[in-house]
Amino acid sequence: MWFFGKNKERKVIRPAGRILRARFDAAQTTADNQRHWLNADSLSADGAASSDVRKTLRNRSRYEVANNSYAKGIVTTLANDVVGTGPRLQMLTDDDNGNGLIETEFMNWASQIRLAQKLRTMRMTRASDGEAFGILSINRNLNSPVKLDLRLIEADQVTTPWSVFGPRPVLSPQSSALSSSNSCLKSEDWKLKSIVDGIEFDEFGNPANYFVLKNHPGSMSNAAYYEYSTIDADSMVHWFRADRPGQSRGIPEITPALPLFAQLRRYTLAVIAAAETAADFAAVLYTDSPANGEAANLEPMDVVPLEKRMATTLPDGWKLGQIEAHQPTTTYGEFKNQILNEIARCLNMPFNIAACNSSGYNYASGRLDHQTYYKSIRVDQADMALVILDRILQAWLDEAILISDYLPLNWRTIRRYPHQWFWDGTEHVDPAKEAKAQEMRLTNHTTTLADEYAKQGKDWEVELRQRAREKQLMDELGISTENKLNLTANFSIEAAQAIGENEKPKNRRFSMTAYTGGPMALDGWKYPVVIDLQGLSTGSSSRPIFISHNQDIDDLLGQTDHVDIVENNLIAVGEILGDSPRVLRVITLADKGFNWQASIGARADQVDFIKAGQNISVNGKDFTGPLNIARKATLGEISFVTLGADNNTSATIAANFQEQTMENENKENQATTKKEEATITAESTMADIRAAAAAETSRIAAIKKICLGKYDDIEAKAISEGWDQPKCELEVLRASRPTVNIVSSQKITATPKVFEAVALMASGIAGSRLEKYYDDQTLEAAEKLRGIGIQEYCEQICAMQLPRFRRDASAWLAAAFSTASLPGILSNVANKMLLEGYNYIEDSWRKICKIASVNDFKEHSRYRMTGSFKFEQVGPDGELKHGKIDEQKYGQKADTHGIMFALTRQMIINDDLAAFTDVPRQIGMGAAEAIADAVWGLLLSNPSSFFSTAHKNYKDGADTALGVDSLTDAEVVFGEQTKPNGKPLGVQPSLILVPTALRVPADLLMKSPTLNETTTANKGKPASNPHIGKYEVVSSSYLSNSSFAGYSSKAWYLFADPNRLPALEVAFLNGIDQPTVEKTDADFNTLGIQFRGFIDFGVREQDYRGAVKFKGEA
User: Fold this and answer.
1) Which of 374, 571, 972, 1063 fits as disulfide partner to 1107, beta carbons 3.0 to 4.6 Å?
2) Does residue 747 surpass a pLDDT of 50?
């Protein structure tokens, strides 16, 4: 911190340290590095994967998958390996019956909506498009109690609407999020939120809404693809792989391989072309003779036909040399394999799977490669289960538990639904080795049956039940595959030794003869079994003793301390250690004389079958077949059972020296007397009524709480029909899910006028103008097509799929304009746009000119009749005198003015309908400008001294500036015009024409009732305006434009009504006073469709007495 005080010299001490430098070759700015990483950027994840970038990548990857057999096979194989025949559900709640019911019903529903196929499509889409979208919608036509459906849409339809149709609107902070229905672009409906290419995020960065176009932007639909739905994030499944933090949308997984696919295709075509060139004989003619020598004269680049397998006579002096076709240096197969291997790497797929060819692949490499591949498959499966399947299951359960009599009622109270998904297993390349390894894992308890079955894509409970059914059937048929031996033996519990006063009681002991070496009838074995005691492995002498094979702490009786084979008998002795009620009950029954037996488990490791009639000696005894001899066996666990299989063994329990007493507490049984039936009284009846009213009030309140005022129809129906709460919740749940009406293609009948309106809308023409051309029904239909491009516009009009313009422009044009409708509609659109542009330009000349018609392009004469038509007094004889007719002659001639324009190749490729409509509008403006230039140019040029003192219609001087006095003077000048016979003209002016600078003063003269002029030389002026409302003010910017000769910003004019006394006349051929459009065939130099716009008109001065000009200055 700095302190104010005396300035003292301060010495800055910097800590000593080392300068660290890290050198990375890749960070060096060298020419090679710049070339290597020319396109490297520092864009964000969403910036790098922008909408335009993803669209380009999607289109290219889709093209490869559709046209490249390797790409198609790789993507299809990936989907098949991940999804297989479809995932299978296993519920893991404590309710076994409920688990089985839900598993069965869910799989039935999944079969109805073809869930496995949709999952395979989503996996293929993620590879080719980078992301897959599915909407959890309602489908009431499903043949299933649960009406949930998964509706797949393409990534093109998930987009921010204003990114398609213009800049982002200014959003209102008070508005809320859009509803999911027929939403249209209205800026006041939007709320300013974080939106990334069709996904709206909340303040925590979680997706909140998805904007989904109802029609695919590339569809052949007449429906407007700017109509969209707003789908809540809870109803949208969005599956993609985020390669970078903050990435909101996916890019195709085969993006790194796209250039390789193109290289592979180019190389294949090059090899084929070289092979074809080598196969087809191609030659060149050459000569050693000098120019103008003895060789025959041939034109350069001449082609000489050669017949196959024929000798050909060549021109004199010429020789034939074959054109060699050299194959590329790299062998075809090696190059393709290397490229294909690199392609498959971005998908973690081994070469032999990508190529579907394992020739030349060794066993060890195959196993290692497949381990990596199937690990990535398991990752995909886990991701699919988390992102897609778990959400589908939860949505399914949300609806299923509300359906009456569908699932057990107790499932409505369960908060969590533990479960797992099983997928198709992978066949091992060596089944025998895998089976041995599986057996070892189960024996060593390093795995479970559930895990081992899961590796095969199986539900362990289902498989075990199936095994049990199979075993039961095999037992019925006398077929055995068991190797487990369950022996039974007698069991003795010996008396404990007496003890002194200070000694602890000793444990009671037991002894048993587990096996006497004879034949036993065992479950799972059709014929008796004899265990060869010489091959029996007893293992450890300490073994636990359980009750009825229940390996639980309460069922633990004790343990052995000796297990021996004595004189061909299996003997086991040990101590009783258990003290649970079950153990005490066993001891009590033994003390009372019950003969317990022991069940000894053993595993048969080697079994010999002795056929019927065959004799054999085992354990010192002779036996006759049929029977099984277990040559090798391993002793397992030992348990108490009530009934054994070996009748030669027995068990006894000796009495205890110490008397054991048990106190039995007798509980009194309370006898309930029969209740007497109560008599229904008025009080009980009223109580029932109140209870019923309370219940109804509670039911209605619950319904209102569920509907929350958003579903009035459901609320009214639920109340009136007496629905219970679960049924109301079910209908609200279904209503809350989007009823998606998203189509990829739709045909709607549209009239030519609809298509005309679509083009005019694209031009930005005002709605009020459109309403003058078309009725409401036409405009409504056109609104649904707003925004389509030229190519789709033409396809819709032609009602057929046209060739791709980029590939074959000529074919596209030929197909499009071979129909009768397209040229006519385009011509009508061009006509209207010409007229629109024609009307945009100032046309004040129409106020001062007479509009006339001529029927050809010849010079026409205009005659103005003059003479005396004044009524004369009739004499006594009653004779009416004829008026004298004279005429004045004026000229007129129409000429053609026009220009060519075209629907060019560039417009079609750019797919810009507005660009096409803009051209005729500009030309229409040009036509209007041509007429305006002609009229005003003629007026300002003052042809033949049209305005002159000789014609008594012109004045100049400072006093001619526009004002009250000068206007009065102009009226006098105009009024003094005479007919050829010298009589007054008798025509008054009706228009005052002024330049732009005089428009306001002229308006003031015509509208202000009072004057505010200054006086000079003490000479007074009237206060009222004598010219108010006399003339119509006409103004034109052309009058003061410097590009015209004779322009002036001060000159002004008075004109008579042009229909009564025209000073200027504009004549149109056949009276057509607007431009005309005609389609013409394009010339050779123009690739597109040409139109010509033209108008035929002429402008001439007429009667000079119809106008007066005041210069406005000296």
Assistant:
1) 1063
2) no
Query: Are residues 1033 and 935 located together in one domain of the fold?
Result: yes
Q: Are residues 940 and 1087 in the same domain?
A: yes
Of residues 125 and 890, the one with the higher pLDDT is 125
Determine the Cα–Cα distance for residues 962 and 968; give it in Å rounded to an integer: 10
| Host H or E run for residue 908 | helix 905-910
List, in order, residues 6 or more apart from 805 with CB less than 8 Å away: 791, 812, 905, 908, 909
Cis (ω within 30 of 0) for the bond into 626? yes
Same domain, 598 and 707: no
Q: What is the domain extent for residue 710?
A: 692-731
- Phi and psi of 993, rounded to 5°? -105, 125
Beta strands in 458-568 (DSSP E): 484-493, 509-515, 529-531, 536-537, 544-547, 556-566
3-state secondary structure at position 560:
strand
Q: What is the pLDDT of residue 820?
A: 47
pLDDT at 744: 42
Nearest Cα neighbor of 1039 from 1000, 1074, 999 is 999
Q: Do 634 and 706 share a domain, yes or no?
A: no
Q: Please indicate, yes or no, whether residues 702 and 634 belong to a single structural domain of this protein.
A: no
Q: Which residues 6+ apart lie within 8 Å of 423 measured at CB?
A: 83, 84, 87, 88, 381, 457
Are the CB atoms for 920 and 834 separated by under 8 Å? yes
- How far apart are the C-alpha atoms of 449 and 446, rounded to whole Å? 10
Please tell me the least confidently modeled range out of 197-211, 284-298, 848-862: 284-298
pLDDT band at 504 (very low <50, low <70, confident <90, very high): low
Has residue 175 been placed in a domain? no
Residue for token digits 């609200």? 732
Phi and psi torsions of 574, nearest 5°: 180, -165
Q: pLDDT category, 613, cuts 50, 70, 90? A: confident
Distances from the Cα of 696 to the Cαs of 624, 689, 712, 720, in angstroms?
A: 81, 11, 19, 11
> Could you read off the pLDDT of 127-146 as tens digits, one per residue?
999 999 999 998 888 888 99
Q: How many domains does the chain have?
A: 4
Is pLDDT larger for residue 428 or for residue 1073? 1073
Backbone angles phi and psi of 768, in degrees to 5: -65, -35
Range in 118-127, 329-338, 1097-1106 the model is least confident about: 329-338
Q: Count other Cβ atoms within 10 Å, centred on residue 750.
A: 19
Answer yes or no: is pLDDT of 118 > 90: yes
Domain co-membership, 1087 together with 942:
yes
Higher pLDDT, 876 or 393: 393
**Crossing angle of helices 725-736 and 712-721, rounded to 10°:** 160
* Other beta carbons within 10 Å of 1107: 29
pLDDT of the residue at 223: 44
pLDDT score of 262:
86
Q: What band does 517 get if pLDDT is binned at 50, 70 and 90?
A: confident
Rg (CA), the chain: 52
Whether 1005 is in a domain gets the answer yes
Q: Is 1061 part of a structural domain of the chain?
A: yes
User: 322-343 in b/e burial notation, b at 16+ Cβ within 10 A?
Assistant: eeeeeeeeeeeeebbbebbbeb
Tracing tokens 């206060």 back to the chain, one arrives at: 1023
**Which one of 731, 752, 784 terminates a domain?**
731
Q: Check whether residue 909 and residue 1002 sit in a common domain.
A: yes
Domain membership flag for residue 397: no
Instruction: Tell me the C-alpha distance between 539 and 666, whole Å.
Output: 48
> Are both 627 and 699 inside the same structural domain?
no
Which band of pLDDT confidence, cut at 50, 70 and 90, is reported for residue 1073?
confident
Last residue of a domain, one of 346, 364, 393: 346
- Dist. CA 835–CA 230, nearest whole Å: 40
Q: Are 377 and 82 in contact (CB under 8 A)?
A: yes
- 581's CB contacts (< 8 A; 6+ apart) are 554
Residue listed under structure tokens 């998958």: 65
